[in-house]
Each structure stands twice: as C-alpha cells, then as structure tokens.
Amino acid sequence: MKEQIRSQLHNPRQLEHLYRTNKGSFKREFSSLYPELRGNPLADFWYERLQYEGDELHWGSRGELLFIGVAALLAGLIAKFPVIFGIREEFFYPRNIGFIAFPPLLAYFAWKHRLSTSNIAIIIALSVGGLVFINVFPDVPKSDTLVLSCIHLVLFLWSILGLTFVGTVKNDPEKRLSYLRYNGDLIVITTLILIAGGILTGLTLGLFELIGLHIQKFYFEYVVIFGLPAAPLMGTYLTQTNPQLVGKVSPVIAKLFSPLVLIMLVIYLVAIFYSGKDPYQDREFLLLFNALLIGVMALIFFSIAETSKNQQGMFEVWILALLSVVTIIVNSIALSAIIFRISEWGITPNRLAVLGSNILILINLLLVTLRLFNVIAKKSDLTDVGKVIAFYLPIYSVWTVIVTFLFPLFFGFK
After folding, report:
1. Which pTM value belongs to this model?
2. Which of 107, 196, 290, 323 is the 20 to 30 A CA-CA neighbour of 210?
C-alpha cells in the first residue's frame, strides 16, 4: 500500500478510496511514509486528518459486517464438527483447535488486503497440508510427538496468518512489526470481549435460573461454542476498522509492565537460590521456567514493536535492554538444564524441541540486546532493533515446521 499512497498523492479521490478500503493499513503505511512527504500540501492535510481521532466507533460497510458474520458462523460450525459428524472430541479438538480460530482470520486478511491468486493458493496449500497431516497422524497413546505437533501446528498457523497479514514473503520489517503490534492489540481487545462475554453469560444463566429454566447445557453447547471462535475475529475487525480503539492502550501496557516484569524477574532469580527448586532435576519446574521465558520474550518483542513505532526516550530503551539481559540469564539457566538432562537421560522429542527453541530464543535475544545497547550508545536507532526482530520471525516459523512435520517422522510417531 505504501507505493500506492506515494503514486496517488496527486489524486485525492484515489487516496480517499485507499483509506476507506483499509483504514488501519492506510494509517500505518502513511505514518511511516510521511517524513519523506512532509511539505506536500495533500500529504500534510492527510497527516492532520489521520492524527485526529474522533470518538465515534466505525462499523465498516454492510459487506464487511456480513463477511464477519458468515466467517464467525463457519468457525462455530467447525467447532461443532464432533457433534455433526460423530467425531471423538478427544481426537478432534487437540488436533484441530487451530483450524477453528485461524481460517476465518486468514480469509479476512486475504480478502481485506486483496491478495493475489498465487499468494492465496500458497496460503490454502500450507493450511490444507497442516490439516491433512495432523488428522492422519496415527492415534498413538501417550505420543510426545503428537502433543508437540498439535502445539506447534498452532504456531505454524500463526506464521501463515503473518504471511497473509504481510502479503508477501519478501523481507518487509515494518509490515512484520505491524503484525506483532496487531497481535498485541488483538490480545487486548479479545480479552475485553471475553470478559464482557463472561459477564453476559453469568447474567443470562442467573436470570433464567430465577424463573426455573436451566439453560446451561444449551447455552454452552451453542452460544459459547459459537461465541469463542468469533471473539478474535470480531477483535481483529474492530482493531482494523478502528486503529485508535486500542492504539494507545497497547503502548501503555508495554510501558507499564516492562519495568514491573524486570523487577519481578530479578527477585525471582534471587528467590530460586533460596527456594531449593532445581531446574536440572525438577522437570515440572523446568517447564514452568521455559513458559516464563517465552512470556517475557514475547513482552520484550511486543514492547520493542510499539517503542520503535513511537520512538520513545532512553528510559524505555534502558528498561528493555536490562530486561533482555535478565531474560538471557533466565534462558541460559534453562538451556544448561536441558543440556544436562539430555546428557544424563538421553534425547527425547520433548527435550530436543525445548533445546532447539531455547537456542533460537537465546540467539535472538543476544542480537536484540546488542542492538539495544547500540541505541543507548547512539550508534543506531530503534528501527534497527525492529529490523532484527522482523528478520528473525521466519526462523521461528521454520522451526515450527520442523517440529510439527519432521519430528514425528524422526521419532517414529512416539
């Protein structure tokens, strides 16, 4: 869209058409393009227009609302497949949970961004390949590779969604960072939608209970099961048609929680030595340790995505740099514990998957930390940090492919 905006600066009608076609994408691309357009009367006018954020909520066109409604209905129907086709729930949901939530989002961005036929064909082929693979996976009791495939298949679909969002396999740092920002905004708005839905559920069930009608079974089997997959789709629609809706919330959350998480991590590392917990011997503790690592790493990356957009001051950069250093320490402890367990008890699918993930995370964190300290030393700016994150995202995607599709073959589906 950036090139389209640049080429239509002489044509106000076409600029208006581009804006109404995809307001969120237009605003992001125009904001990144404006520094080089400053001084152009039409560009200055659009900059001021986009800076003004009215209080009204835009609901888009009837066609968009119809698309969202049909997509949400289809997602609910997919969730009801075990009932419709008599499939065992224990078989269906672990393998196909991602195919309930992601196809509507893929369809939405493919339609909204007007992807080419070739790109749509690639997205469909990748999605169908994952769908077929996971559902023909042998139903082996207590299969570690099945659990790993089911978990990483969701990340694989998340990568496909990123490809759909970006619209190209070429390296475009700004679009990839925009995808991370979208995920942050989506988490915020979907959480609010689910909280509101939970309150509505409690009120509805309570009111019907007062008049002697027990609708719990019907409500959960039809209303909730259709509402849950619709929540991220509705959240996506709201964030894309109303960029201002949570555009100021996500940076505040990132700015608020980064120092708090830094303090918590430092205290936590000190507390480990007094608690007697040993990640080298305690498997459950090691798993929780890695979950903490992934959560903190995600916070760092989302914070950098927001910070690089807004070019915040040195305090925020110092917080992110220190948080990255502490996270590297946490990662190193987890990595040494995994290597110790492999040397003592041999390689298993779970240990190899965690080992590979921790190595990738460590390398990424080291690169990000180096760039952050370069920013502090005024040798570069935050856009370089964003570029490192954007460059590294496809590497995680490749790893999800390896774990999802190749691990079962390497380990005989065990």
Report:
1. 0.83
2. 196
